[in-house]
Design goal:
Largest sheet: 26 strands, parallel
Strand content: 35-45%
Helix content: 10-25%
Structural class: alpha/beta
Distance between the termini: 78 Å
Radius of gyration: 28 Å
Amino acid sequence: MFLNNQKGIAMFSVLMIMTVTTLLGTAVWFASSRETLATELDENQTQAYHFARSGVEAAIGLIDSGNINDYLVTANDVKQVTFYGDLGSLKDIAINDYSIKYTITELEPESNYKIESEGRVGGEDGVQALSDLAMRYELGEEFGGGVPDLVDMTLFSEKSISMVGNAKITGDVITNSIDRESVELTGNAKINDTLSIGPGGIPGNVVRINENAKVGTIDNLVVPRNYPMPEFPVFPEFSGFPQSISVSGNSSKTINPDDTSWYSKIKTAGNGTLTIDVSEGDRVIKVGELEVGGNNGVKLQGSGRLIIYVEDEFTMKGNSSVNAGSNYNTVVMYFKGNILDFAGNTEFVGSLFAKQSNFEIKGNGGVTGHIITGGNKIKVTGNADANTRVLYAPNALLDMTGNGIIQGTAIVSNFTAVGNAEVYYDNSIDLEFFQMLDWGETTGNRTYLN
């Protein structure tokens, strides 16, 4: 009897264990299935968004080409056209099975358009994700119009991308290239989000992924991207003769609003501090050479903005800083020379437009703000932190090594990253500086409506 009870208890225990195991297995399967489904939904929504973005770019390409009037049809006093299809095959013929649909409507005054774009994943048999975008697009004016689209990606590299080691990009990456193996990732290199290659490019030919390297998804641009250089401004002229300032030791000096605006050289060293009183407006200064060194540097006083024109040389070294702890919109520098160097533990907070110089951010050097240059090479090395918001160098090779970091958006001709170099997206970008510049008439103004 006792033995039978033991057997009964043992059998009951086995049944309980089997039941619990089954329930746990079901729960794990259910959780795993939900996680997989959530991942698929996220991927589908991301893909739908990129289809919608591609529709916007296709519409802008058609408007910029000057051929839009060949397609617009007037109905009820409204001029518009709608295109349907897939990447690389969009026609103004209505169909039900499409991944991209966009409509262009002409607005008043002339040269104003509304673009509405829909991205769809799944087709007519079962739509899995939808994304809608709307934009007002105005063709560029004589001055100040046509700031290119700068904030919908982490990196644009027109011709090539090479990533080695643990190099990483977080955010979307775009290239116009369709050349064989023009995009190559080796080692543990990663592009965490979408890589868009040139129109008609075949991913298997254009992109080479070796070893443990990874790319999120790969798609095609509908039209190539164009990033022109803005016009470099004319430097102001001042009467009289330039002065010079040197601040060193433990001394300090202030440039007041009524002081001269023209200097042959400004230099800081040691524990010296130069304060520039900008008052409440724009303080304009022109200087031949600007050398910021030592443990302090240049700081601003007042609520206005410093606009500084540097003709020949700008260097930072030691533990120096320019405008540390302030907003990068409060300093605008235009640099005409060839020598531009950020080294040591330096910090520059402001926006910089260099006409032609190459430059290097190295050591523990840091830049917070926008950088525009017409140069052909930029290096970010060591532990440098380029919190650049937008690095706009459409003619340049961007070469990153060591633990160099770029936070924001980079627009370059070619891109290489080695070691632990990293570029990651920042959606807090303020484009006030870019809107100050003359972009000519080749590109329109974009205003998103949703």
